[in-house]
Amino acid sequence: MKINLLSVLIVAVVALTFVSNSSAQIVEKKSLTLEGARTVIAGAKFYAAKNNAPGGVIAVVDEGGNTVALERLDGTFSAGANISLGKAKTAVMFKRPTKFFEDVIRNGRTAMVALPDFTPLQGGVPILVDGQVVGGVGVSGAASAQQDEELAIAGAAALTDQKITPVKFIDAKLVSDGFAKGSVLDDGSNGENYMVHASRREKPGMSEVHELDTDIIYVLDGTATFVTGGKSVDPKMVAQNEFRGSSIDGGETRRLKKGDVAIVPKGTPHWFKQVDGAFLYYVVKVR
Q1: How many alpha carbons lie under 13 Å from residue 285 in its C-beta half-sphere?
Q2: Which CATH class is domain 172-286?
Q3: pLDDT tier at 1, thresholds 50, 70, 90
Q4: Rounded-to-integer distance, Cα 170 and Cα 12, Å
Q5: Percent of the chain at pLDDT above 90?
Q6: Are 59 and 137 in contact (CB under 8 A)?
Q7: For the whole model, what pTM was predicted?
Q8: What are phi and psi of 188, to 5 degrees?
């Protein structure tokens, strides 16, 4: 059987045209995953902790307004869950922050409140990735409507503006020099929730209370008498959320030695009551 070359070419052109037209009718869409929703919630929670925001419910929906994840922080009123979901759905359905609609209604267009499944309250924002709306986040129950929105924006930014944090390396000589006089190795200035200190003591210190920081202490060398708990005597504020006192009344006394680890929760009075010679220890402050 002979094959007509012209017929083959015609079939090929038709096939290519069909494929081309089919491709033109399909748009690649990005989708919000559960992991992505958890990243949004973590970003909002981090902002809340950093700014002492009380309570709140954080809700995340996909591009269709379907619930992906929701977390209710301690102390938040029970209705906050439904309100935050409503804000998230409204933000994603209209592709606008919900504050826009609250302002429109406040300025007189009250007929908008008749729309179904519509929550025109500040605190919901769409989540965009590469210009596409992939979902929405709503927050309810923080200190104010403004703070609701700030938490929602921070959550959305956690997904869209994720940065790769480089590994930080501190040379052994710098560490050794730090312990020679006592110094801060990492001050957390890049937005981390921790600091690292190379600490050195040669005599007793004042009692300390850190309202926001938990101290994780690892003894590198030497011995000391360490008191925790009890009540700080004559405490004075030396910086925001930081107090120093002359000693501790009561509390629990321990002997710290090389290799020991002590974890002092935030708000707990602690005091190096006695230090035997040079006492070197790492402190990781976690906020």
Answers
A1: 19
A2: mainly beta
A3: very low
A4: 64
A5: 61
A6: yes
A7: 0.50
A8: 70, 20
CA 262/CA 246 separation, integer angstroms: 21
Give the integer Cα–Cα distance in Å for 139 and 83.
8
Q: Do the Cβ atoms of 156 and 137 come closer than 8 Å?
A: yes
Q: Which of 286, 284, 285, 279 is nearest to 219 (CA)?
A: 279
Architecture of the domain made up of 34-160: 2-Layer Sandwich (3.30)
Q: What is the 3-state secondary structure (H, E, C) of the chain?
A: CCCCHHHHHHHHHHHHHHHHHHHHCCCCCCCCCHHHHHHHHHHHHHHHHHCCCCCCEEEEEECCCCEEEEEECCCCCCCHHHHHHHHHHHHHHHCCCHHHHHHHHHCCCHHHHHCCCCCCCCCEEEEEECCEEEEEEEEECCCCHHHHHHHHHHHHHHHHCCCCCCCCCCCHHHHHHHHHHCEEEECCCCCCCEEEEEEEECCCCCEEEECCCEEEEEEEEEEEEEEECCEEECCEEEECCEEEECEEECCEEEEECCCCEEEECCCCCEEEEEEEEEEEEEEEEEC
Which tens digits make up the pLDDT trace of 164-182?
Answer: 456 788 999 999 999 999 9
Angstrom distance (rounded) from CA 36 to CA 42 = 10
Pairing of strands 207-210, 242-245: antiparallel
Domain map (residue ranges) of the chain: 34-160, 172-286
Contact (Cβ atoms closer than 8 angstroms) between residue 183 and residue 196:
no
d(CA 41, CA 39): 5
